[in-house]
Records
---
Amino acid sequence: MKLDQLLTKMWNDYTELNPKALEIYNLFKQKEEKVINDHVAFRTFNHKLINIDNFAKAFVDLGYVKKDYYEFKQKKLDAYHYEHADSNLPKIFISELRLEDFSDSLQSKVNKMIEQISPEMIFKPDFCISGRGWGVSFQDYQELKEESEYAAWLSAFGFRVNHFTVLVNALSSFSNLEELNTFIKSHGHSLNTSGGEIKGTPEQFLEQSSTLSYNQEIHFTDGKHIIPACYYEFAKRHVMPNGNLFSGFVAGSADKIFESTNKGQ
Ligand code: NI
C-alpha cells in the first residue's frame, strides 16, 4: 500500500466515526482553503505485540522516522512522534498505555482483548485502522473507564484514528487560533475547554485546540451504546529562535488534549 492510499483510508475511516470533522473540513473548503494535516494521532497499549514500535512499523516502512519522546505521568502514557522527509505529510503521534501501572483486573481485561487479535493482522499496512479485533461488554468498558479513560476508549474502538489535526498556519482565513475557534463554535461545534480552549503558548512554539468528541453508537456484546468517539484538532506552530518552525509537541498541552474523549458533544 502506498502512503497516500493509507492516508486516504485513515481519513475515510476517521470521518465515518466522526462526521463532524468532515463538516468542519467542508467549512474550510467552502472558504477555498487548502487543508494541510499537521498530525494524526493513534492510541495503543505497551503490550509486546502492539506497542509503539510494532504499531509504527507500517509508517516506518513508508518512510517515517521516529523523533521525540513524551511522557504523561498522570495518565500513565508514553508517546513518540514520527516525521516524514516530505514536510507536507502529517506527523504521526503514537501513544501507549503502561499496562503494568494498572490493576490486575485492567491488565487481565486488556490482555484478553489483545489475545483475540489475529497475529497476521498486526503487521498489515492498515493495522492502524483495523478497529476492534475483540468483543467487549459495556460493563467492561465502564469498569475500564473508572481506571483509565484511555483504556476504555481503546477497548471500544480498537485501532482507529483518534484525531486528525489541521495545521492552522496553512489556512489563510484565520490569523490566529482564537479566530479559528470562534469560527468553529459559530457553526455549532463544541470545543474541549480542559486547560482552557487554547493549550500552549507562542513561547512554547505550539498552540492547540480541539473539538469535543463526536458521540457515536457502538455495538458492545451486551447492546448498543452511544459513547465519545474521536475529535478534530487545530494546531498553530511558531518559529523558534533558530528560524525553524517548531515540529515537536508540548506534553502539558497534549495531556489536556487527550481529555477531548472524556465527553462527547
Ligand atoms: Ni494531537
---
Amino acid sequence: MDGGCRQQYLDALGIVSWVRRGDKGGGADAGADEASLETPPAAANPAPAATETPSPAPVSAWEALEAAVAGCQACELHRSRTHTVFGVGDRNARLMIIGEAPGAEEDRQGEPFVGRAGQLLNAMLRAIGLERGQVFIANILKCRPPGNRNPAPDEVAACAHFLRQQVALVRPQVILAVGGVAAHNLLQTDDSVGRLRQRVHAYGENRIPLLVTYHPAYLLRRPEEKAKAWQDLQQLHGLLHTD
Ligand code: URA
C-alpha cells in the first residue's frame, strides 16, 4: 500500500499512530506494519467527564479488514454465500499459501481448505515440517462461486484488494500459489502450472518470492502428479531456509 493510500485507510479507521511489529527482516521500509490504535499518553488524554461516552475499543488493521470482508457486497457472490472465508493461520507467518476460492465445505465453515483438498494440503505442509497453524492460508476469492465454477474476472477484481492487504500485513518471506487460478491472478499470466512451477517468481512491488505448484484438488484427481508437487515442496523448503 503506498503512503497516501495507507494514510487514507488509517484515517478512515481512526487510527492515530503506528506500532512497529517485531522485525522479521523485512527492513524499516517494508511498508506493511500492523497498525493499531494506541492509548495516547495520560497528559494528552485527560480523564473523560462522567457524562462522556467511553471511546470505542481499538481497531487493528486486521480487525478492520476482517470486518470489511465479512460485510462485503462488492460482487454477486455475496448473495449465495453462507460465510465469507477470510483466511486462517499465523498472521506473522513466513509462508503464505494462496488458493483459488472457497468450496462447499469452506463456505459452510468459513475457513479455507477444510475439505478433502485441505486435508491433502495439510499433509503436504507436514511433509516439509510445517503445521497448518504455522502458515497463513487465504484464497483469491473470499466467497464461494456457486457450483465450484472458476472465479469470474469481475469477482476477482472486486476481491483483489483484500488479498493485497493480507499479504501486506503478513509480510511473508515466501508465497506458494496452489493451482492455476491463484498463479494466473497473482502473476498476471496464463501460462500453465506445469510451466510456472519450479521457478521463483516475484509478487508485488516488494517482489516477494512466489512459487507455484499444483492445487491439492488436482492432485487428488491426478495422484501421479504428486511426485512433481513433492519436488515443488522441497524447493519451497529450501527457499524458506535460506537465511
Ligand atoms: N480450494 C481452494 O482453492 N481454496 C479453498 O479454500 C478450498 C478449496
---
Amino acid sequence: MAVKTDLFVSPDYFNIDELLTEEHLMIRDAVREYVKKEISPIIEDYAQRAEFPQQIVKQMGDLGCFGPTVPVEYGGGGLDYISYGIMMQELERGDSGVRSTASVQGSLVMFPIHAYGSEAQRNKYLPKLASGEWLGCFGLTEPDHGSNPSGMVTNIKDAGDHYILNGAKMWISNAPFAQVAVVWAKNEQDEIVGMILERGMEGFTTPITHGKWSLRASATGELVFDNVKVPKENILPNVKGLKGPLGCLTKARYGIAWGALGAAMDCYDTALRYSKERIQFDKPIGQFQLQQKKLAEMVTEITKAQLMVWRLGVLMSAGKATPQQVSMAKRNSCEIATNIARDARQMLGGMGITGEYSIMRHMMNLESVITYEGTHDIHLLITGMDVTGFNAFK
Ligand code: TGC
Ligand code: FAD
C-alpha cells in the first residue's frame, strides 16, 4: 500500500484554541506532527496485518506521552490535565490503538504505581515506563467478570515471604508485549489488592488474542496466573478495595473522552475534504443538502464535546472533577465519535470501506472504545445513579 499523506486540519468552530495556553498548543502541535510523520503513514498497514507497531512505544516515551501528569522526578511530564487530554486527542486522531497504548501505560500502570505504590516501586518502575523502555498493562477484567469487576475470582494466598497468585484476566491491552503488569486480585480477607508482576515470573503467561476486527494495531491478550510467586514487596501498599482500580479508570476514561473526539475530528475532516472533491451529478457532493446536514451535525457535536472535555480538564487539573462527570464525557465522546464515523463512512461511498481512508478503521476501533473502560450502558447507569440517587446496577 502507498505511503499516506496526512492532510488533517482540526475543526475549531468556536475558537476553542483561545481557551488553551501556549504550552497546550505547543504540546498539541508536537504530538500532531508526530502522528502525521510516524503514525499516519504506517498505521493502516499494521491494522490490516493485525500487528502492533512496537517502535511506537519508545517514540511515545521520547515525546512525553506516557504519564504526562506524573511528577517530573519520576520521569513524568508534571503537566496539567488539559495537556494530557490534548495528547490523547492527537494520538487517537491517528488511531485508537495508539492512544490505548498510551492510556494504559500512563493512567492504568504509571498512575497506580505513583498513587498507590511504595517509594521503592515508584523509583524502580516509573522512569522506565515513562521513557518507553518498558511497556505496561493493566489486568482487571476476567472471563466471567467484565462490567462487575467486584466479583473477580483471581486471588492471592499468603505463603510466608510471598503470595501465590492464581486466576486469569482477559481482554488486556498491551499484554503480549508488556514487561510489567499491574494486576488486581482478592486476598484471603476478600479484599481487592493491586500488585506489580514482571514478565518472566514463573507461572505467568500472556497469550495473545486473535481475530479482532477492532483495534487491530493494538495488541490484546490474556494474563494467566498459575501459582505465580509474587514477592510481598510487589504489592501496592497504599490501596485496598475496588476504589483502587476504579481510581485508575477515572484517569483513563478522562483520556478517552479527549481521544475519541480526536477520532471524530479525523472522520469529519476527511469527509469534509472528500465532499469538496468528489463530483457526482456534475457537482461536488458537498453541494447537496443531505451531505451538508451530515457535516453540519458532525461539527456541531464535535464542538459541544470539545467544550465538555475542555471544562472537564479544568476541573481535573483543579482536583474538582467527579468520576461521574468523567463517565458522562467518556460516554458522550464515544457516542458522537461512533455516529460521526458511521456518517463519514457513508459520505465516502464505496471508498469509505477501503483502507485508502482512515474512517473505516476509526469506525471499527470505536466499537472497542465505546465498550472498554466501562460500556456505554454502564456509563449511562453511572449518570442515572448520580442524578436520581438510585442504583440500577444490581
Ligand atoms: P461501587 O460500590 O460503586 O464502588 C466501589 C468503590 O469504588 C469507588 N468508586 C470509584 N472510585 C474512583 N473512581 C471511580 N470511577 C469510582 N467508582 C466507584 C466507590 O466510591 C466505592 O468506594 P468505597 O470507598 O465505598 O469502597 O462498585 P460496584 O461494584 O457497584 O461497581 C460499580 C461499577 C459498575 C460502576 C464499576 O464497577 C464499573 O465501572 N464497571 C465497569 C468496569 C470497567 O470499566 N472495566 C474497565 C477495565 S480496564 C479497561 O477496559 C482498559 S481498556 C484500556 C485501553 O486499551 O485504553
Ligand atoms: P459484559 O460485562 O459481559 O457486558 C455485556 C453487556 O451487558 C454490555 O452491553 C453491558 O453494558 C451490559 N451490562 C452489564 N451489566 C449491566 C447492568 N448492570 N445493567 C445493564 N446492562 C449491563 N480490561 C482490562 O482490565 N484491561 C485492559 O487493558 C482491557 N483492554 C481491553 C481492550 C479491548 C480491545 C476490549 C474489547 C476490552 C478491554 N478490556 C480491558 C475489557 C473491557 O473493559 C470489558 O470488555 C468491558 O468492561 C465490558 O466487559 P465485558 O466485555 O465482560 O461485557
